[in-house]
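Quick illustration for those who missed Monday's session on complexes.
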Amino acid sequence: MAEPQAIYLSDYRPPAYHVDKTELTFDLDPQATRVRARLHVTRHPESEAQAALTLHGHGLTTERIAIDGQALLESEYRIEADQLIIDQVPETFVLDTEVIIDPTSNTALEGLYVSGPMFCTQCEPEGFRRITWYPDRPDVMAVFTTTVIGDRQRQPVLLSNGNPIERGELPDGRHFVTWEDPHPKPAYLFALVAGSLECVRDSFTTMSGREVALELWVEAQNLEKTDWAMASLKRAMKWDEEAYGREYDLDLFMIVAVDDFNMGAMENKGLNIFNSAAVLANPQTTTDATFQRIEGIVAHEYFHNWSGNRVTCRDWFQLALKEGFTVFRDQSFSSSINSAPVKRIEDAALMRTLQFAEDAGPTAHPVRPDHFIEISNFYTLTIYEKGAEIVRMLSHLLGEETFRRGSDLYFERFDGQAVRVEDFVETMAEVSGEDLTQFMRWYAQAGTPQLTARSDYDAEKRRFTLTIAQQTPPTPGQEHKQPQHVPVRMGLMAADGQPVELIINGESHGTDTVLHLREAEQQWVFENVDAGAVPSLLRGFSAPVRLEYPWSRDELSHLMRFDEDGFNRWDATQRLALIAIEEMMAAHQRNELMALDARLIEAFRYLLREPTDDRAVLAEMLRLPSEAWIAEQQRRVDIDAIHGARRAAIEQLADNLFPEFESVYHANQQSEAYAPTPEQMASRSLKNVALSYLVANGEVEALNMARAQYEADDNMTDVRAALTLLAHSDRADLGDPAIRAFGERWAHDSLVMDQWFATQVTRPQADALERVRFLMDHPAFSIKNPNRVRALIGAFTQQNRVNFHRLDGEGYRLLADVVIELNRLNPEIAARMIVPLTRYHRLDEKRQALMRGELERIRAENLSRNVFEVVEKALA
Ligand code: 0A1
Ligand code: ZN
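Prediction with zinc ion bound:
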């Protein structure tokens, strides 16, 4: 096999031929589905008259190719390297093809495949070529008509995009439905679902008074889990009208839940397909976190109808155009419903741990990459989350109102077109008059800018001088970086806890302002400042950067108490805890006793005793920094010291503050029935953080509280929190029976069993890896199902750092074994799963060697493009 080759943005050429109309007929059969495609093709006026027609196809058995009704001779076309090339075609013509595909053996879950009792599709980014010959690129947009033929008994429901226009019976117990989607779309938005499904119906009246039918299609046993997604959908539809003036544009909107799905969900026009884990919920089976995740994903896919479908991407290098903007939209939606500061904390924490790690690792890439081998590898935190941070910075730079004018103009101007990142940013520049040339670097430069700030106080002149320098480290293929335009939101907190009025050059900026850092180093002088002011920097995580400032512990405690910005109160607490934990890590390395800094204990005492109006934020402040974030701050990562020190810090906080945690636990008990409301979720979050400290203290009393909460069996949030504490404790006599009971009770529900798998394999005890191997043989596990793989293998390798990084290398070996198997079955999932193995650069030499050894072992296999690309980068 030839080595996979990279594709470059600079090689982009517009398509030579357009497809105006696409007519498809699917004759469904599990092993041999026949697909007939009729494409109405026109040569692009600007392309050469002699241009060949090139179509993409993968794994197709071609039965017939005809132009204007004339079957082509074998000499009139070529099929090579997944392309069908026809050298001579007329200006305008009708191309007919007929192919046979095998949905049952499609374990990659791209194109048409079988999931449980249904057929379904996944076409983004390049799955449509596994269905039929087609110009499978987003800048070819056509109107689709789709006829689906199936067995009346086995596939009573036949769905595709748009509106149903005809249905009828056929001989041999078969029937058909024809669907028409009036909106021109790229092939990646095509969808088909067929099977035995039940429907929940509702409706939504749009702002212009049109009635839209809403349908949620699920397997019968899931009917009791549909309310939340339907309610979320209606909230999202309303929000998009109010916040962006966007109305839905078809008479029917459908969502289907499928069990086998590579990602969260997919925004196919009028027919969103969801991973069942991202749509099905009820209080007995679903935690608060998942309720919120579902609400966000339902909104995300719905919002794509405008940011993605009506205005789509010219090519896949522009992926962040639709994803960054849509994530920003779903984040804004979620924070309009739930605690806004907590949403910001969660999103920033995700950036600061996982995205920063990606940016610092071998697969680092710009938000708009300039080359790739396999585009499926680029559905990353950088494209999605950093892409959203860029749009957020733009919206702050322009102000809400101007940003809205910009988005209105963008949707209006580019409706029905396939466009580039520049089209979005230039529209924003046009409405605002801002010069966004330097800002565009955010899309081009990979790596996380490092900001180093310092201050100087002149007591005589009462001047506070702040200096900020920036530098972006080199990333693969990008040695030298230019300064970025970084908006730094900030304030100064006076010694008495009051905010300081910010006066720069004689001009007042209130108590909260945005500094625009554009140079490698810049300075700001604040006048009329009393001694002892503490800077609060990068409020609300105003830019996706690392920030260093030499805050003392007293200054951090000060910010923790008084900062006007909830996000920075949390950030100050995290930084304070980090200093204490790093001290303990040093003691761990010297084999000395690890004593927790008394100032952190006092800070926590303050938090636990002072009443606060935002309990959701308080719960976040009480969580110590994650092992992943602590690791991100180290030059050399010492896995065991991080785990040991963090654990010891939790225990010492628990020992010193037992009564305080206990009273928070009791004060946040609920009597009303479960509801996923922000108030209730805040209480549960706070209560369960408190319980985790109580259990860490090791008192039997605390373990009994956890057991009682588990047995009360009120809702999955509380049950799962208690189960995790029991299963992660050293008390096998409590943990094992709970795990056994839970496994028996929920054996019928695969989404709950995923939580059961994840809970067991994230335990810190040394037997976690053996449990993974043991559970891989459990009847509820299947390596072919991505959710199972994520729950068992993903949870272990990403969330159980001490055990994945075992010094005997068994964790790495296990992951490599799984990746090698997945490489054959599902390359996309294989390439995602392998990532923890590629993050070895800051570990000790022994682990580095073990990890590289496993990567070499994988490289010796016959690799998919997906895995090849990641392994090559990791070993480079
Ligand atoms: N556009 C979807 C993400 C997605 C990408 C690829 C998929 O299958 C290979 C599925 C979904 C979204 O942003 O939600
Ligand atoms: Zn998306």
